[in-house]
Amino acid sequence: MSASASAPLVVRDRSASYARQRPAHAQVFQLSAIERARMVKQGVPARAVQELSAAMGLPREQFMRAAGLARSTVERKIAARGMLSESESEKLVGISRLIGQVQTMVQASGETAQEFSAPRWFAAWIAQPVAALGGLCPQELLDTADGREALGNLLTQMQFGVYA
Q1: Rounded CA gap, 2 and 138, in Å?
Q2: Domain spans, the chain
Q3: How far apart are CA 11 and CA 151, in angstroms?
Q4: Total-model pTM
Q5: What span, in angstroms and rounded, lies between the C-alpha atoms of 1 and 24?
Q6: How many Å apart are CA 9 and CA 93, to the nearest integer?
Q7: What is the rounded distance in angstroms from the CA atom of residue 132 to the CA atom of residue 136?
Q8: 57, 162, 65: which is closest to 118 by C-alpha?
Q9: Residue 84 CA from chain centroid, whole number
Q10: How far, in Å, CA of 41 to CA of 51, rounded?
Q11: What pLDDT tens digit does each residue of the chain (164 aa) get?
């Protein structure tokens, strides 16, 4: 079954329940670049910021700062039950993709513990300096597409033991 078959990506009614339509992190990771681009262009509901920060166990303000999201703008959109801009949506989809990559890596290892939380592991990991990033904390790279790409590459290196 494809990831897109279980969770429609087209949001026809912007007031519809996003929870019902939002793909899980692992599904976002497994979507094609075109499907993710479609999600970004349609916009992600602002309340997804609340959901993702809660899943990660981070205060919303800390999450928005790391993601490079303007707090007042996002808070206004959350209150109005609005949609994030294309730029804001791209950041959220990108972070969800990274979390999905972690979840997929753990599942592929066969070491899946029921209590393992990919969002919480990711939140802890991004807060610690990483030698392979020149001592930067991964959260310093979350706000740009190139930074998120570098983090995805690093996670892949970690998975296959070529961590430098």
Answers
A1: 30
A2: 3-159
A3: 29
A4: 0.84
A5: 14
A6: 12
A7: 8
A8: 57
A9: 14
A10: 20
A11: 334 333 433 333 343 433 334 568 889 999 999 999 999 999 999 999 999 999 999 999 999 999 999 999 999 999 999 999 999 999 999 999 999 999 999 888 877 667 789 999 999 999 999 999 999 999 999 999 999 999 999 999 998 888 65
Cβ–Cβ under 8 Å, residues 97 and 67 = no
How far apart CA 145 and CA 98 sit, in angstroms, is 12
Strand partners, 91: none
Q: Are 95 and 67 contacting, i.e. CB atoms less than 8 angstroms apart? A: yes
- Rounded CA-CA distance 27/33 in Å is 12
**Block residue for tokens 């009614």:** 13
